Sequence to fold (414 residues):
Amino acid sequence: MSQIAQQIQIRNTVFKNRIIKGAMSEALANTAGEPNHLHLGLYEAWAKGGLGCAITGNVMVDYRAKNEPGVVVLETERDLAELKQWAEIGKKYGMVQLIQLSHPGRQCPKGLNRETVAPSAVAFSPMLATTFATPRELHEDEILDIIQRFATSAAICEKAGFEGVQLHGAHGYLISEFLSPLTNKRQDQWGGSIENRTRFLLEIYKAVRAATSDHFIISVKLNSADFQKGGITEQEVISVFKAIDQAGIDLIEISGGSYEAPAMAGAKSKHIKQSTIAREAYFLDFAENIRKEVNCKLMVTGGFRTVKGMNDALESGACDFIGLARPLAVETDLTDRLIAGYDVRYAVNPIKTGIPFVDKMAIMEIIWYAAQFKAIGEGKAPNPKLSPFKVFLNYAKGNIKAIIQGKVNSRKSA
Ligand SMILES: Cc1cc2nc3c(=O)[nH]c(=O)nc-3n(C[C@H](O)[C@H](O)[C@H](O)COP(=O)(O)O)c2cc1C
Fold:
């Protein structure tokens, strides 16, 4: 039997296979951040396609800090009924579901929120500064409030019936901003040494664990590197992995990069080693090294495209789960096909309109994938050949003012 088809258990939850959908922001909620029938349709399509586990797109723990329009916000039990329906879909088809909880910190486009907050007031590079404002440094009472928010949201996820949560600790969002010396310049107990920079993550983990039952799965998505000069060192990353492992985390998803260096999407950077670029999955070398240091389950996401690549990664013991994102957006039945021995059907390419000023804004990735999610949510088939140009025209109709002002998300991949 293929490695990807093997069952595996975390706490008392059985995963029927090793394929996990990595988080992809759906951009399907209304401005209040409420989930709706489109989320249900989308996750049902993945469940019907044999997926072992879905990690949802990032769900905000604070309405005042949204990373993009259309994200789900989970602060209270306001949407408990819809969340219960969402969780029920997974149970119906045997697909485990983890809600990805997130605070984006400084990576919120200008104009979306009243202000942005972060560990320290570190400005973006001149190119990204057109989209992202310099954040305000968080006060200690605000840090404690955010920690509690993760716990409150996680408890609601459990009440709704989800098997667990994933803390978004990667890609330059708030938790990884605390971890990185590039974005954390604090002099107090939340900054300075790597122990201090890890404190925010550990406190969130402890608060979430305390607010949920022993059966509840807690995962975290972490960067293997910032891929930026002066970023977190490899030794420091290893110590973060070891600390969260010893604290009791169930599953770590390995990724890398941020808006400033989008390694998670396979972007070539002078800081990415040739050996990493050469492997099918971007972060497999790192996974092989960290495997020796931690006991929790590991998942690698980014770049997996062939059944052989996936089975080899599992066989080598480097990881326990295969994370797939973009391929699942255009092939909802991909898991069943992989288990039957077929590779990913469609190559993942950057989404470009061919119009330089539009492609420079890099909103295309978000709106093109969001168009696929909407179609799937409505019960239609995804369209891998969907024209980025047409998607942009549609988007431009409703957002002309924002485009002229440059107030659009320049993220390549969350
Ligand atoms: C449209 C889109 C939205 C994404 N949203 C998230 C997100 O909300 N949280 C997250 O951790 N990663 C997010 N990602 C990154 C993916 O989870 C994944 O790490 C990345 O796409 C690489 O995997 P792949 O090569 O299989 O696509 C997003 C990616 C895309 C394309």
